Amino acid sequence: MRRQHFFLARGRFWVGMLPWAWMLLFFALPFALILKVSLSTPELAIPPYLPPFVMEPGDVLPHLRPDFASYRRLHDELLALGTPGADLQYLAAWGNSLLLAALTTLLCLLIGYPFAYHIARSREAARNTLLMLVMLPFWTSFLLRVYAWMVLLDSSELGLINRVLLAAGLVDAPLQLLYNQGAVLVGMVYSYLPFMVLPLYANLVKLDPQLLEAAADLGARPWTTFLRVTLPLSRRGIVAGSMLVFIPAVGEFVIPDLLGGGDVLMIGRKIWEDFGPNQDWPMAAAVAVTMVLVLIAPIVLLHRHGRADGRTDGRSGEAG
Amino acid sequence: MDQAGEKGAANRRAYLRIEGVTKRFDDTLAVDEVSLEIGEREIFALLGSSGCGKTTLLRMLAGLETPDAGRIVLDGENLAEVPAHRRPTNMMFQSYALFPHMTVEANVAFGLWQERPRLTRAEVEARVAEMLDLVQMQRYARRKPHELSGGQQQRVALARSLAKEPKLLLLDEPLAALDKKIRQRTQLELVNLIERVGVTCILVTHDQEEAMTMAGRIGVMNEGRLLQVGTPGEIYETPDCRFTAEFIGEANLFHGRVADGALAGADFPAAIVLPPEAGLAEGDEAWVSVRPERVSLSRAGAASAGVSEPADCNAATGEVADIAYLGSHSVYHVRLANGRIVIASVPSVHWGDAPPPTWGDVLRVAWFAPDGVVLTR
User: Fold this and answer.
1) Which among B91, B99, B145 has the least Cβ separation from residue A217?
2) Rounded Cα–Cα distance for residues A277 and A41 (Å)
3) Of A34, B25, B244, B353, which one has the fewest beta carbons inside 10 Å?
């Protein structure tokens, strides 16, 4: 008995340690490295920067020489906001990324909510099949699906959508469908939709159908019932789905790169450029660090908000 | 429809008329041609075990299910085509179905905000206060449902379903979610409250005690059919079928066929003398139901020695198989020679100063023929 208990306690300890070790190894440590790079000075070397501290032989503590130039650059752009002719390439990329991510989130929510609602209201036997269908696109390569959109949206008369439009006589010349913000938006909504549907479904399936019946019984029309009962009770699902879509969408690189061409400037692309062709690692790292900080803020806020609100998980109270 | 309505009004005015209502789920008949009339301000209980169709019938009254056939007429209005949200009925759900994200007052106000023409904020607030006052929940107005006890939730649910002054209040197992102790006290509270408000009420329950305590009339349901409708006394004293006799309280049922004016069968050692005007012909199959408190017990040999049996007395002897001592009375299970158990409920004072019979004692069980009820189905 005692031995068993001992191992059980140890087992629990190690299982609990695993996520922490994981987070340390794959988040905290890389983040520290990036933070270090962001405070470095660009230099023609391999790697192309001077670290923010040096250890001379015989030193007890490292000599600090942090370089805030990259952050100053971002700060200066922020100050220059509104000045005509100012170079705001990072700020513009930031703005565009946030805008596209916000639009993606909104569209995913508008499209995903009916998806999730319908699945949650289906017969129990049908639900798993329907969920599987939502996930089905994941079974093919992500890259393949984005390339498929390139074929669909191709702006020559060979593009599938253009061919249909031309054949139907709706347009005289092929439309410019690819390599613009719209194409990026379409690709992102398409790719991220399941991340909205799944948490929403998990929330809506717990909603007690008797609450909807009670609302109808008390005279609420279906639309009122939705707005006053279903929607508020699914808020946690909406928040969870929106974060799962919004956060990766802000830093998305592949979709804008393939569907947006060079015109759609997003923050992910800026980071790639600075790490790659521009060889300005500190700048790229500084952008990456600010990105984490900017995205953590809304998560913390939403988390606080959700907790303060108490139990609103869709079940009628069972407290005895 | 109008003709039928006038005809109904001519005799006793039926406030709610259920006519041949039928509901089928896939291949099971949940409600089978139920017809029922309920008067204004009546408290009516639909009583039956789970799956008997009582809740489905209630949900059809609320508009949450659509009948496959039949009509529901409330206060002269045919409800068949009226969707749930426009019906003048309100329901208290078994789980209460309080909105967990709203405070107590918001829950009670919910239905009031749906009223058309719209009520003003002041009107809604006044009505909510009145309702919370009625169920004595004013102090909890700002609480969320999960911060309340089961009994408090039940009162909020009641206030919510009464707030719109429905023509018909529907209660689905109103007290099933409460502890037994609270339940008994709440039964009478609930009746008093409903009577004070003066609303016509149909409640659904599987608990015969609850039905008998709360309702003026009871409808016994089984397998989708309404078997018997009557006051608690009628249903208990004169059941008209075996199901009702056995479902409401306890009953000794003896099966047999009529031979020479008495009921002969394997259930009782002697031919059973039937109550007068039993209305049976020779050879008819029938059952006689006798309530345990109608069965008298005496020590075999002692009392009966030398005394001639009255002609309308059915008697036999048996051995005590079980005794349940319940304080004011005891329930004896007496096994007859043919193996049949007869249940008798005897007041504790019955045995006087003598020690009461114990396991294995031989007792004489007897009842007077008029105390038996003849059942043919």
Assistant:
1) B91
2) 17
3) B353
Q: Which residue, B82, B254, B354, B255, is CA-closest to A216?
A: B82
* Integer Rg of chain B from CA: 25
pTM given for the model: 0.80
CA B1 remoteness from chain centre? 31
- The gap from C-alpha B171 to its chain's centroid, in whole angstroms, comes to 13
Summarize pLDDT for A140-151 with one digit per residue, the tens.
888 999 999 999
Test A208 with B111 for CB contact under 8 angstroms: no
Gap between the Cα atoms of A93 and A293, Å rounded: 16
Q: What three-state secondary structure class fits A26?
A: helix
Domains and CATH numbers, chain A: 89-319 (1.10.3720.10)
Chain A environment of B111 (Cβ under 8 Å):
218-220
The shortest CB-CB distance from A314 to any of B100, B144, B150 is to B100
As beta bridge partners, residue B23 has: B31
- Say how far residue B355 (Cα) sits from the centre of its chain: 38
Cis link prior to B275 (omega < 30° from 0)?
no
Q: Which is higher by pLDDT, B126 or A155?
A: B126
Asked whether the beta carbons of B114 and B86 are under 8 A apart, the reply is no
| Shortest distance, CA A235 to any CA of chain B (angstroms) | 11
Dihedral of CA atoms A77, A185, A187, A202 in degrees, nearest 10, equals: 100
Q: CB of B232 within 8 A of CB of B199?
A: no
Cα distance between residue A316 and residue B1, in whole Å: 41
Q: Which of residues 86-105 of B touch A (CB under 8 A)?
A: 86-87, 89-91, 93, 95-101
